[in-house]
């Protein structure tokens, strides 16, 4: 009789171990299938699908935990107690995981209204953070900065932030190019040099053209933005296909303008009056 009981217990133990192993294998395969299906749909760069992918895999993990736990008598009793006092447990859990639930709900809101997508360049105005959206999970959003570091920002914070999205609607980007010349310099010649350099730059596009690269001969305008004690500030707007190209193009144009101004004897103004005012006399 004792041998039969012992054999039965051993069989139960073997069955439990096999059940746990099978559950782990099925859970692992399900997560891989979910990833494969999302890749097949080519929706992995969409913020809503990123969040849904993470959510489904999270539910699979929860199912695995309960399935494995059901093999243990203590877990069953605990589950029964939780169901009997579900209202109290839910209230306690809601209080204990208040922040996590807030991040989860915020993640739903972000995935639903999609203020940004994976790969978008965004600026968090309140936090003064700029970077590229790399991923979103149930709890947080990952931002890649220009120094190639990663910022892990809770979804609740992202949901409350005032965002500037450089990629929303269209990628085309405009940036001011300011050059200040002295009062003695030839204004018309300076403006002509700027117009010529801007119009001939390969990255500059015509904002009024549907294709952008269909440039007109007179699409660049240079204005006198302001007069200061230092000199005359000339301004034009540089349009490029996206914000990253705009940054590079502005830098290249500034360098070319400095070289051309030197050749044509056009002097770039500086705060000379401030320098003179700060000169100290030593005894």
UniProtKB/TrEMBL annotation:
Residues 178-268 form the Mechanosensitive ion channel MscS C-terminal domain. It comes from the Bacteria. The chain crosses the membrane at residues 13-35, 47-66, 78-97. InterPro entries: LSM_dom_sf, MS_channel_C, MscS_archaea/bacteria_type, MscS_beta-dom_sf, MscS_channel_2nd, MscS_channel_C_sf. It is a multi-pass membrane protein. The keyword Ligase does not apply. Its main location: membrane. Keywords: Cell membrane, Membrane, Transmembrane, Transmembrane helix. It is found in: Cell membrane. Residues 100-167 form the Mechanosensitive ion channel MscS domain. Pfam families: MS_channel_2nd, MS_channel_3rd. The keyword Methyltransferase does not apply. Gene3D superfamilies: 1.10.287.1260, 2.30.30.60, 3.30.70.100. Belongs to the MscS (TC 1.A.23) family. This is Small-conductance mechanosensitive channel. It comes from Peptoniphilus koenoeneniae.
């Amino acid at each position: 009789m004792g041998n039969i009981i012992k054999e039965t217990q051993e069989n139960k133990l073997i069955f439990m171990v096999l059940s746990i192993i099978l559950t782990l294998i099925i859970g692992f395969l399900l997560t891989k299938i979910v990833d494969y299906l999302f890749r097949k749909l080519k929706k992995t760069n969409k913020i809503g699908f990123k969040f849904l992918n993470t959510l489904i895999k999270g539910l699979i993990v929860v199912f695995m935990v309960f399935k494995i736990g059901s093999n243990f008598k203590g877990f069953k009793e605990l589950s029964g107690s939780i169901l009997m006092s579900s209202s109290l447990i839910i209230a306690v859990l809601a209080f204990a995981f208040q922040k996590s639930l807030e991040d989860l709900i915020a993640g739903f809101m972000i995935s639903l209204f999609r203020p940004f997508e994976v790969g978008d360049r965004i600026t968090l105005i309140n936090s003064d953070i700029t970077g590229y959206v790399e991923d979103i999970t149930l709890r947080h959003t990952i931002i890649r900065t220009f120094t190639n570091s990663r910022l892990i920002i809770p979804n609740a914070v992202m949901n409350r932030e005032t965002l500037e999205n450089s990629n929303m609607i269209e990628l085309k980007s405009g940036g001011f190019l300011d050059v200040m010349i002295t009062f003695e310099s030839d204004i018309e010649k300076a403006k002509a040099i700027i117009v010529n350099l801007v119009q001939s730059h390969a990255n500059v596009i015509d904002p009024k053209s549907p294709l952008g690269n269909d440039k007109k001969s007179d699409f660049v305008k240079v204005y006198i933005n302001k007069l200061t004690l230092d000199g005359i500030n000339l301004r034009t707007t540089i349009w490029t296909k996206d914000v990253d190209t705009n940054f590079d193009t502005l830098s290249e144009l500034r360098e070319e303008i400095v070289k051309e101004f030197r050749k044509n004897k056009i002097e770039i103004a500086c705060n000379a009056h401030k320098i003179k005012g700060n000169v100290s006399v030593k005894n």
